[in-house]
Write a structure and sequence with these properties.
By secondary structure, this protein is α+β, with helices and mostly antiparallel strands. The protein contains six helices and ten strands; from the N terminus they run ββαβββββααββααβα. The chain folds into two domains: about 100 residues, no CATH class; about 110 residues, no CATH class. Strands 1, 2, 3, 4, 5, 6, 7, 8, 9 and 10 form a ten-stranded antiparallel beta sheet that branches. Helix 3 packs antiparallel against helix 4. The chain binds zinc ion. Zinc ion (ZN) binds next to loops.
Length: about 250
Amino acid sequence: MNMLVRCINCDEITLKTPFDQCPEYDTSGSFESFNTLEKDDFKDFLQNHHGHRLEDLKILEDSFISEKDYAEPVKTSYFKATNGRESFVVKKFRDKIDEPLKYQLIYGDYSLKCVGIEIQSKEIVNQLNAEFKKYPLHQNRIDAFVNLLQSVVKTTDIKKLERIPEESSNASEIYYKMDDISLAYLLRNCHNIFKGDEYTHIEEFIHRHKEDGVLLIKAIYKIQIIEMVNSRKRAMAAQIHSEKRRVAEKG
Ligand SMILES: [Zn+2]
């Protein structure tokens, strides 16, 4: 298991792990160079914090989160770690591809905030054109269908929707299935756009793609870091405050 080492005096952290336990280092350079680099980093850390109090932090393995694709080499990601008494958020980042990863300790927590809901307009249009090749739909009706779907989705509450369990490649895009009420509303209103056979075909199209296709609703999330003033800093601030008061009272 990966371990972080924290210097309690300085609130700095480093990763204590051989290269082979850490697949994220494989972006560039050879195995050897990165391996040595990381080992040296750890040695440097021990030297820099000689005589300080160190402790191991356990990484919560399921807590990794990032707004970019996992394969993206230059990105910021976050995960949670604990020393058994306190929990921390660790910010993991690298500024340039040839730089080693840096770790920053944050007192607090993170959460995901939904900042937008959208339909996959471009994919829907492409799919309609592909599936209705034989009897192409008029562009006006395609536009009307996309607009209708947009208006249906605008009023849905994402919290009530069923999330598609497939892993999205990053935490900022999560897909949901349309709920039954929205689906019924969509089908009913499609009667205003499509007639006869065309309606039958569009109804089939909707049923084909509602579970796992272009009709899934995409929600955009942002990572929010909730930083807390750590207790030691707070204690120090309180101490300074009371000392100031003592000085003031004396004067
Ligand atoms: Zn230190």
